[in-house]
## 1
Amino acid sequence: MLLAVFSDIHGNRQAFEACLKLARAKGAERFALLGDFVGYGADPEWVVDTAMQLVAEGAIAVRGNHDEAVNSTTESMNNEAQIAIEWTRGRLDVAQRRFLAELPMLVDEKERLYVHSEASSPQRWTYVRSTTDAAKSLIATPAHVTFCGHVHRPALYSMSVTAKMTSLVPKTDVSVPLLRGRQWLAVLGSVGQPRDGDPSAAFVLFDTVSCQITYCRAPYDVATAASRIRENGLPHWLADRLSQGR
Amino acid sequence: MPKPLVKSGAVIDGYTIGECVHAGGMATLWTVTHPGIDVPLLMKIPRVSEGEDPAAIVSFEMEMMILPRLAGPHVPACFGTGDFAHQAYVVIERIAGTTLYKRLPDLPLPYDEARQLVAKIATALADLHRQNVIHHDIKPSSIMFRESGEAVLIDYGLSHHNHLPDLLQEEFRLPYGTAPYMAPERLLGVRDDPRSDLFSLGVLLYFFTTGERPFGEGETLRAMRRRLWRDPHPPRKLRADYPPWLQEVVLRCLEIDPAWRYPTVSQLAFDLAHPDQVKLTARSERLKRDSLSVAWRRRFNLGAVQPRATADVAAQIASSPILAVALDTAEGAPELNEALRITTERILATLPSARLACVNVLKLNRIAVDKTLDEQGSNKHIDRMVALRHWAAPLKLDESRLTVHVLEAVDPATALLEFAEMNSVDHLIIGARQGSFRRTLLGSVSAKVASEAACTVTVVRPPRMATAKPGAGVVWG
C-alpha cells in the first residue's frame, strides 16, 4: 500500500492542494498528517476542514506545536509565529479548534510511528537536527520507521542494531529502501513553508510492502499563497520567505 | 536472527539452490536456478551467525541497496534480494570466467596489454560513477571480463551511493577495504570522492606493469598512513624501459591530493586510448621519489593538504566532461572556424576541468588508392595535426587538457560518431556548412551527427551568414 505523509502544512492551501493532487496521481491510497496544520499561512480554515475530511476517511493525524498554540497560550513562539497564531485563533470555529485540541501527540502502528517533533518526548517539541537527536528518538520506540516533521528540512536517519547512526539528505524522487534489521527516522520537509532552499512543497511517499521511501516535491502557486498572507495583514516576511524556500 | 535456510536442493522465494561455489569471509556463493530466468545465476548469502564480523551484515545491506539500482554491461545484473527478516540474499547473474586475480602470476604484463586491460576497467568504472556509485574496493579480485570483452565490476559491499544512506560511514572507526589499493583520503574518513577509485586503479596499473605494489602489502594502519605523505617509487626506477607516457598516467592517478589526479575516470580512459597524446610533465621523467624533506613537509602539514571531498559525485563528473570539436581546417570557412572557437571558449570557460579533443576527418576516396603524401610531398596527416593545434592555440589551454586527432574515413559523420562513442565524449561541437553545393550533393555531416550522437551536440554557424541568406539557417549544413 502506498502511504502519503504530509507535515507542516501551516495554513498554505495552494501547497497542500498541489501535494494532495500529486500524491493521488502517484497512486497514494492512504494519508498521514504530521501536524502543524495552521500558523503562518492565510487559509487555516480550508486546511483544517480538509484534514478533518481526510481523518474521517481514515487518515492518520497528530498534533503539532502550532495546533496546540491555537488552544493554549502557554506555548512560547517567536513574534511572527505568535502574530499568525493569534490571527488564526480568530479564524477557526469551535469544531475546527476542537479537532486540533483532540489530536493525539503520536500514533503508534507498531511497524510505523507518526509524531510531529520526535518520539522520545513529543510534548517538548525538540527539533531533530543531528544524528544524536535522531538516535534519542529511535531509542524511544521499537517501530521500524518513525515519521516526523517540525524542522521543515528533509532528512533520513537510520540506526543499526549496534546503535550506529547514518544520515542522508534525501534526493527528490529517488526511492530509498528502508532495510529491515535497522530502524529509520524519516524527517519530512514542509508542505506549507519549506526551509531547505527549494520553495516547492515537500511530502513523502512510503510503500508499506517494499519499504521504499520517496521524498517528493510539488511545485505550487507560491504567488497566490504569498499574496493571501499579505492581504490578510500577516507579517510580510511570512509571504516573502515562501518564494525563497527559507 | 533466524538460522540460515540454505542448503543444496532448498528453495528460497522460487530459487532452487545448487552447489556452493565459494565460501568467503563475509558471504557464501551458491548457484541457483529459477523457472522464469534462463541465465546462469548466483545467490550471495551473508554470514550472519554469532561471532561473525559485523561488517558482513552492513556490507551486505549496502549490496542489497545498490545492486538492484545498477544497470549496463559493466555490472552483474541483479534479479532479486531477500530481507534479513527472513533470509538475506541477493541473486545476481553468474559471469563466466575468473577474476583478474588469476593474472597475478603473469605480472608484469607487457605494457600494451596492461594499457588495454586498464582502459577497459576505466570505462567500466566511469559507467559506475555515472550511476552515482563509488566502488571503494577496486582490486584484481573485484574485476571480471565478459566474453564480449567488457570489464565487469563485482562486490559492492564497501561502496558508496550518492543518493542512499552510507551505512559504512559511521560503522567502523577504521577505514574498511583492501590496504594496498586504498586511497590516502580514505584513511581520513572521506567516502564520497570518486577519485578514490581512480587512485586504486592507478595502484592496479602500477602493479600490473611493474610487478610491484606501489605501497607494499602492509595491512597495519601505520603502514597504510605512510601513503598520506610518502609517494611511491617512480615505475622507471623499477623498469628502465618504462614508457614515459605510462609513468605520467600512473603517477597522476597516484597523486596524494585527489585534486592533482585526473578529474574523472573517463579522462583516464581517454589517455589510455591515446597514449601518443598524453601530455608529458616532470612526472614522466622522474627516477626518484620526492626528497625526504618534501615528504616530511607533507607529513607535518597534513592538515593543510586534507582533501575536501565533493559533496556530489554526479556534479563532479558533470564539471569535468570530455568536449570534442569537429573542425574542417582544410576547406572550412575561416569565419566558421572562428565561430567554433568562440563557442568552444565559452563552454570551456564554465568548465575548468573539462578537456578538449580537436578532431579533423581526413576524407578518403571511395575507390582511388589514397596517398599519404599530397602533391607538394608533405604528410597530410601531420599537416592536419599542426593545423588543429594552431586553431586551438588562442584557447590557451593547459596541454594536459588538449588533444588533437585526425581520423581517416570515407564518411566523416560516421567517423565522428564513432570517435564520440569510443571516447565517451560528453559534448560535441560541430560547424554547419552553409548552403553549399557540396552539402546538397553529399548530405549534411552536422545533421547526421546531431541526430544520431548519444551525447549533446552543439551546431555552430558564423554569426552573419544566417541573416545574409534568408532561410539559410533553417537547414543544418
Note: The helical segments of chain A are 13-25, 44-56, 65-71, 79-91, 94-101, 131-139, 222-231, 236-244.
## 2
Amino acid sequence: MYSRELDGKTYTFGVSGKLWRDALLMYDHQTRSLWSHITGEAIKGPLTGKRLKPLASMPQIAWKAWQLNYPNARVLSVPTRDGMRENRRQDVYADYHASQRAGVSGMEYTDNRLPNKSLVIGVQVQTKDGDTQFRAYPLTHFTETAVINDTLGEVPLLIFHDKKSFATAVFKRNVAGDAWTFRHQDRYFVEDNTGTRWNLVTGEAISGKNEGKRLERLPAVNIYWFAWARYYPETSIYR
Amino acid sequence: MKHYTPIFILLLFVTLCATAADYTDDAIRTLLPFDAIPAITDPQFVSANDAKLDADAPVIGVTFNDESHAYSLYLLNGHEIVNDVVGGLKIATTW
C-alpha cells in the first residue's frame, strides 16, 4: 500500500500487464512510468528512480476480526453482472498458491535458505546511517505464539501474526523512548512488561499502565520467500 | 580438433551467460495489454453491516484518521489496484 502523492502531485495507477522479477508492474496514468508494486519504485519512464511512500496497513485479516475492531469500516463493492459484490466466492489463484510453482514466467529463482513457497512477513527499516535493513519472519514461527520481540537496525520491533485470522502487523516496540517486551495472551491480545493489555489489530493499549497509548504500525507484507529474496537478496531471516 | 576449441569456448561462455541471466534477469515481460486487468479508480463502498462477506473472508484492512476501509482479497485478484482516499490520504491499495 502506497501514497499516491509524490512531490506535491497526485497520481492514479493502472495495471500495465507487464511483469518484472515475476511481479506486477503498475503504471501511472499521468506519465505512464512503470512502477514495481513490490518496491514502490519506478523502473521505466519519466519518473524512473522515484519511490512511492509505503503506508502501513493490515495486509490480510479475516473479515470478522476486522469488523469487530472497526465496526464503521466501509467495504469495497464492485459492479458485476450479478450486481454489486463485496466478495468473490473463490480465490482464482488457489491452484497457484497450492502448487510448488514459484514464478509465473517459468523461470526458477531460488534462494535455498528457505523453501520457495514459504510464507514470510517481510519487514524493512531505515537505520540511523540511512541504510535499509531487511528481515523475513517465517510464519512457521507463529504456531505457539502470536508475537516476536525483535530488534532490526536498532529499531525495537514487535512482529505479530495470528494464525486463526491470519492477521499480520509490525509495530515499533517503543513509544516516546520507552521500549516494552510483549507476550501473547489470547487471539490478538498481548501484555507488555508493565502489565498493560494491548489489542494488536488496532495497536492500542486497552487497560493497564499504558492505557490509551498506541503503537506505531510499520509497513509489512505477507509474501512468498522466493519473491522477497529475489527483490531483497541481502535480507536476513529470523531464526 | 584444435580448430574447434575457440567455438567450444564461445558456446560455453554463451551458455554460462544465459544461466547467469536466469538469476539476474531484469527484463520486463509483457503478458497482457495495458488495463486488461482493470484497476479501480472510482471505488464504491458499502457499510460493514451491509457487506456480504463471509466471516473468514480474507481482506486487506486500512485505517487512517479514524476512517477504515476493507477490500476483499478475492475481489482484488481481478483488479490488483484500488486508487482510494482514506482519512484524507490518497492511497493505492495494491495486491
Note: Chain A touches chain B through 63 residues (CB under 8 Å).
